[in-house]
Amino acid sequence: MEFNENLPIYIQIMNLLKSKIVSGEINEGDKLPSVRELSKQLKVNPNTIQRAYQELEREELVFTQRGMGTFVTEDVEMIKKLKKDMATNIVQEFLVKMKKLGFNSKEIMEILSEWVEKEERE
Amino acid sequence: MKNIVEINGLTKNYFNKKALKDINLKIEEGKVVGILGPNGSGKTTLIKILTGLLRETKGEVFIDGHRVGVYTKSIVSYLPDRNFLYNWMTIRDAFEFFKDFYQDFDEEKFKDLLDFMKLKMDMKITTLSKGMHEKLNLSLVLSRNAKLYVLDEPIAGVDPVARDQILDAIINNYNRNSSMLITTHLVRDMENIFDEVVFLKEGEMALMGNAEALREERGKHIDDIYKEIFGE
Questions:
Q1: CATH of B3-230, one of 3.90.25.10, 3.40.1080.10, 1.20.1270.10, 3.40.50.300
Q2: Is the pTM of this model over 0.90?
Q3: From B225, which residue of chain A is nearest by alpha-carbon distance?
Q4: What is residue B199's three-state secondary structure?
Q5: Per the CB < 8 Å rule, is B171 touching A48?
Q6: Of the residues A74, A92, A107, which one is the last residue of a structural domain?
Q7: pLDDT for B32-48, tens place per residue?
Q8: Cβ under 8 Å to A: B residues 31-70
């Protein structure tokens, strides 16, 4: 994986895991790969992976069981909330960019519904 | 946490030329530290002092609490930036050589690494490509159960596939009780494996810090910070 954003690597790893959790690629209660496994897979320092796991634990999205590993929360509501938060961020970012291009709210809605319809037809 | 390396006020002069000026550096146990700088910035001089091949002009260097000497050489595993094996050797000869020479050499680890690198015991040194050389040398060096691994330009001049294998081998070998010091000017390829980075510019420490903290603080990759420091 390439870490292209100008963010600390641990945050990019957190975001990667979050999108896997909300998309259902990793389910609630699933075991995450060990620090060492993920470190090999992503070619990233194990301490960085550890940090990402610690921060996810602080956000209560994962929990650690001694000697067993790190697991995704079983709290489905929490995952739903995360999904909503992530969607909000994307929408906000989209709106800011569209307004920078000079579109007003009405025009943005038109463009959006046009594309959604087009996608559905295909 | 315990410091594996402690360098205080290290200066090295070659006659009138100053190769290193007042270097201060601590490396904790379990950390991977990148020494970054272009050719001639003092990286190899620093490494040669750590490995006991050169003497400092001024300052102090401690490894695992000891001055550089017989003891420190027994706990430092060093990958030079040039080939150190004889041309008449096969990989098996190189393996026997290391086994005889270093008490901490782990045969099983070496055999695993050799497999991983897709090298065979009966290959002759003279028939190896540059990438294979680098992979063999690294396998030998990582097979020691050392406290400090010093890797001088481990991925310089190798193809992307070999480079990935080398990075994998370095990451797989990571352990909490030893530290690694790695020099490179190929920052983009290696920056994700460093805990700390030190930028060496004309023998001086231009910048030092935790890699993630620097990314956060400056909103940039380590590679971009490198270009800023050494550009123009």
A1: 3.40.50.300
A2: no
A3: A6
A4: strand
A5: no
A6: A74
A7: 999 999 988 999 999 99
A8: 31-32
